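Exercise: predict the fold of this chain.
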Amino acid sequence: MDLEQQLGNLRLADEHIARGRSLIEHQLETVHKLKLSGDDAESAIELLREMRVSLEAMMDHRAVIEETIEMIRVEKLP
């Protein structure tokens, strides 16, 4: 396992998480607009739920990357 590669993976995971949060915020606004206008928001709500599940998976994956980085760093200690 290469530390630099894992640090790159961590940066990429952070970018994906930030993008996921941004998309969730946008979807939440869409749900509110649909509800305010009296339109059916059920499919938008379901998509929001799925987006949150995906974000949670991304965050779990990020935690695994952090653990891997820590293991690499510990192995390199004298």
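Check your answer against the key: The two ends are 18 Å apart (CA to CA).
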